[in-house]
Amino acid sequence: MSTDALLDALHERLGGRGLLRDPADMARYSVDWAGERLGQPLAVARPASTAEVSATVMLCREHGVAMTPQGGHSGLVAGALPAEDGAELVISLERMDRVREIDPINFSMVVDAGCILDNVKQAATEHDCDFPLSLGAQGSCQIGGNIATNAGGLNVLRYGMMRELVLGLEVVLPDGRIWHGLKALHKDNRGYPLQQLLLGSEGTLGIVTAAVLKLSPRQTQSRTALLGLPSVEAVIALYGLARRDCSDLLSAFELIPRRCIELAMEATPTLGDPLDDAYPWYVLMEVAASGPLDLGAMLEHLLEQGMERELVLDGALAASDAQAQQLWQFRESMLEGQRRRGEHLRTDIAMPISAIPTFVERASTAIMAASPDCEIIAYGHVGDGNLHFNILPPAAMADADKHAHLHELEALLFEVVDEVGGSISAEHGIGRTKQDAYLARLSPLERELAGGIKSLFDPAHALNPGRILPRP
Ligand code: FAD
Fold it and tell me: Where would one find the signal peptide in this protein (predicted)?
């Protein structure tokens, strides 16, 4: 059957707003966040309900057409980007953006998968609750995408990743059937945890259409500090101290190298140098709580301890919310500063927290030996053992050579990750860009089990084919 017949049937089922076929209308669904990779959708379906998602999937199945679920399109491993051959139908969840229900007593809320994370957070706040997932892309990423990638972010050390923040799911399976798993239970030990298979499956096992999210009591106060430190060893020692000294109220502990402070100031010229002197490493940390606790005194005590032990050389403690926001602005602007440097290697690796100093030392030595003119930018969520060890190619290198060069450096870097018992993907997933490195590290048994799971859910490999596992 021709794809025209499918598109006509989809148009009839979804209506004019529900199906985009014009290349100009499809442009924004066809390019990744960094603007570095292009895909070519057959068309873009924009269902407005779970029933419409199911109907879309059933029609695709009938016509033998592959599908790519797409959320906010902020993923960094090309998972939501349709293949270049124009054979995949993009299914965008963007019209399914309703907060269905909030239960502040049960600390839960039910949302459509297309809800933008920022809007979910705002809705929770209005009911005196927090939805604690926070990340740089929260103004555009969607809950469905967060679930599909098992997203983490700034507050994982306190609240966990999406796996710990989802109570129930509604999913359209690759054959179009709807799995109704929207339970709002904080405890449920019935049989296999099916929803955990969907979390982090990157749209390869089903299309998430709604979720029950776990909320936390709203934090009514927080204190933020930016500290200057002499070494990564000092950062890790301070982290141990902070976890113990702050009654486990630490909600963020970000490692930032000096170069990132400079990139942030370049990207946002209104930002001045945050401390009187420049330091090789910085920590941006936050403690948050509700109730009558003196968080300021807690942080001051920690800083005194840190200075006495010569872990902290200087620090700025935000005295107001506005000042705290300004300190966080460094974290946000440094990403924009990197983006402006064009194509570079972005990684999201993980390792035991205690291995971070050894890793940074070994990886920096290996990369600089292989490419002395490149620039290393290592920052991350230290409390989760998660580093973005990014590499900017030599400024003088021709654009055409950068991709292959960065790929070689990535392979070197991943060898050091293996040496310290780490993971090549802590947050972004495998998608298409990390597939070779992922497969190279799978044991035959793991590969057999992973292949069995995919075949059980999607024997035809119709949903996100070629992501995580290769096409058969
Ligand atoms: P998309 O990019 O649209 O899709 C990602 C994957 O999920 C694709 O494989 C897609 O097919 C699948 N998918 C999307 N929606 C659905 C659905 N409804 N059902 C099934 N599959 C679906 N990630 C972190 O974990 N932590 C961070 O701190 C972080 N910071 C970031 C900062 C910036 C500036 C940027 C650009 C990205 C960052 N990311 C981070 C990565 C990204 O934001 C997350 O992976 C996010 O969860 C992706 O959500 P999305 O809606 O944009 O998904």
Answer: none
